[in-house]
Amino acid sequence: MTDELTPAERYAAARVRAAEQATALAPFREMYAFALDPFQIEACQALEAGKGVLVAAPTGSGKTIVGEFAVHLALTQGRKCFYTTPIKALSNQKYADLVKRYGADKVGLLTGDNSVNSEAPVVVMTTEVLRNMLYAGSQSLLGLGYVVMDEVHYLSDRFRGAVWEEVIIHLPESVTLVSLSATVSNAEEFGDWLDTVRGDTEVIVSEHRPVPLWQHVLAGRRMYDLFEEKSGRDGDQAGRREVNPDLVRLARMENSRPASGRDKRRGRNNMREADRERERRQRSRIWTPGRAEVIDRLDSEGLLPAITFIFSRAGCESAVQQCLYAGLRLNDDAARAQVRAIVEERTAGIPDEDLHVLGYFEWLEGLERGIAAHHAGMLPTFKEVVEELFVRGLVKAVFATETLALGINMPARSVVLEKLVKWNGEQHADITPGEYTQLTGRAGRRGIDVEGHAVVLWQRAMDPAALAGLAGTRTYPLRSSFKPSYNMAVNLVSQFGRHRSRELLETSFAQFQADKAVVGISRQVQRNEEGLEGYRDSMTCHLGDFDEYAGLRRDLKDRETELARQGAAQRRAAAAVALEKLRPGDVIQVPTGKFAGLALVLDPGLAAGRSNGHRGFEHHDGPRPLVLTAERQVKRLASIDFPVPVEPLDRMRIPKSFNPRSPQSRRDLASALRTKAGHHDARRHRKERSRAADDAEIARLRTAIRAHPCHGCSDREDHARWGERYHRLLRDTRQLERRIEGRTNTIARTFDRICALLSELDYLRDDEVTDVGRRLARLYGELDLLASECLRDGVWEGLTPAELAACASALVYESRSADDALPPKLPTGAAKEALGEMVRIWGRLDALEEEHKINQAEGVGQREPDLGFAWAAYRWASGHGLDELLREVDMPAGDFVRWCKQLIDVLGQIAAAAPNGAVARNARKAVDGLLRGVVAYSSVG
User: Fold this and answer.
1) Is the separation of the CB atoms in 104 and 117 below 8 Å?
2) Could you tell me if 309 and 439 are in contact, meaning their C-beta atoms sit under 8 angstroms apart?
3) Number of neighbours of residue 19 by Cβ within 10 angstroms
4) Residue 65 and residue 146: Cα distance in Å, rounded?
5) Does the pTM of the predicted model rise above 0.70?
6) Would strands 626-629 and 634-636 be described as parallel, antiparallel, or unpaired?
7) 856-893 CB burial, b ≥16 within 10 A, e <16
8) Residues of the chain with pLDDT > 90: what percent?
């Protein structure tokens, strides 16, 4: 091919190659054994040109290459690079990868509880650590050139998302930002915001999966493809995907099963014997396969390793046990020996007595067979071992909760979804297309697998079309969850003052999205105002001010409507009072409705309120008498059947033997009713005199209308129609303007309320942060203000380290159990008193927040402290053993370790912020008491 080029073309090509070799990208590309994808090259070139980048690409597409190029550029230029991740496990993984490439002397790690070589030119850290460094003005920020924000779509996270925006807003302008995100449907919008707050930012979106993904449904013994490729005869429909018709037929047949035995018999009588036989055979092939059966099937078809997502921790553990009981063995003897050697090496630091408590031997048996669970309730070390063995191919079947889909690098050949419904904290809800994409994105290992496979297990009432919609939709919009907090407020005011802080918050992605929504509403307001101008012209009257005249007519109509409403309300109230006076045996005349006429009261019903009905608790607005009509019907009437008060016409004795369910009983009593009260005329309720006739305001308005010049206009009604349209459009426009006002400056208004509350508590004085405010600036977390108030009031003074650990646990712990669970066990003495005082302080703060319109439902403010971990923290900090403690608190080891690590983090903050030396010393001693055994043991972070 080169021989066909002219000398000039060869010279030009050589110039291009020489220019490419002179870039930093050329040596970087040589570090990898594979060629970079176009989107990776485009992003790296933008970075080298000095631009920030936002890369949105599917899971497993290799977007972290761009982050690694930022590391390469920083080292080449003699600058620093911070690589941030949302979770410690991902930080540990990235730290290990970068150490392997650049050496331990050039790479550091900073997580909530670990610091390794923190002054290195490249530091991997959790996003919260970087946020805290920015607020503290850390010296480590000097010389910072690049920040990589991996999994930046975490800013949608309801609880932690604000941290990502804080970092993006507060990073120095000289820092180049590399944002790596999953495929989101509004990447351009996010890129526009980054362009606004960070300067020139290139948005690179790749929809291409490097490993194609095949979608399947496993029903019984058969694996169905979800989609069927269709090609039209004219060629214009080539590549169109349709839902597999076999699956559609299967679903139709399942959903058409007769509901009752009688229907089934009737259906079978109308079927030919051959049809019945075919149906029997077909149905015998449809069932939801068991967990061991699924793994065995995947193994036989060469589709392992696989991750099966089960939205329950207990379900994951149960699945492993089911596979073991079924005798599944996915590893040969050599692999088993390798597994045992790795596990023993990684767990050598855990005391033997704790291994028994942690279920080590059962866990090891599963690993040796190539089977494991992975969820947040596991010990972090156990999870890390599972991850390592899975990546090495020594564990081939993992049963995991959805947390595995968030960032951890554990690609598989196949992903299995047991169900398409999960518990979202409030109810069982269908998983979203974004969640489906995130979960199935693990299938297909780049450079290993030719294709990935997503397998959904057949469930009764499954809709293949709905599943195809999940699999085919890529709508995963990024929504800001940014909200100001107390800690954020004092840190911002300390650095920038109130006015500048307000302006900074106005640049958040949350406000950017709200403002974009306002643009559309503003356009509608402009169109409405143009329409109002036209209507105003059409209603102009040559005799006078028609707007004034229309206003009088409108006031008259409103007054008449109000009086009618008051009259109706009074009649309803009078009717309800009359109904409450009814007694069994009263003969009444039901005035209106389907059951109008004579009726005998069997039961007067209940007063207005809440009653326990057959559908559970029901609300009703008044008594609901049970009556027998003259037509032999027993009915429960409602207040709507009595628009006017009802009075008893007569009384009758109801026989004790009367059974409302017996037709004969009803017939006899209805006959007696007609005999006893048939002579009463069906009295019609006399219409009351209209209240409007005697109303002075209505008389005044009618006089004013008749006296107005426009009343005599021949086109009066025509003008009035235009006037009605004008005022209807004006009302709609005012509503839109209120919506604009509600969305504009929302973040800044919340910030103002927070500052007002902090000023009342003397944390702020205008632009000055007080001593107690500076203490609050060192306390991060949901209950930052509560912690600060406890320090100010000396609530924790005089406590032992273990008692302080118990009290501090209420600042971090959040129970997974229902609100109506049993009261938690608490340590006695000073700790119990201090916990009680913390709850009282929270009550005071809660009342203050309500006064300042700070709404917890919107994610701002202090939740109630949860005392559920106080006993566990107290016992562990007191030196008690793990076996005894886990039995007492009924908590998985992984949860226990996680809460202990979060408690250690908050105790560190208390030690740094406490004005009392004894409290600070005890906080540090509490950390030492907690940081032992399984809590202390971890590989890196």
Assistant:
1) yes
2) yes
3) 10
4) 14
5) no
6) antiparallel
7) eeebbbbeebbbbbbbbbbbbbbeeebeebbeebebbb
8) 11
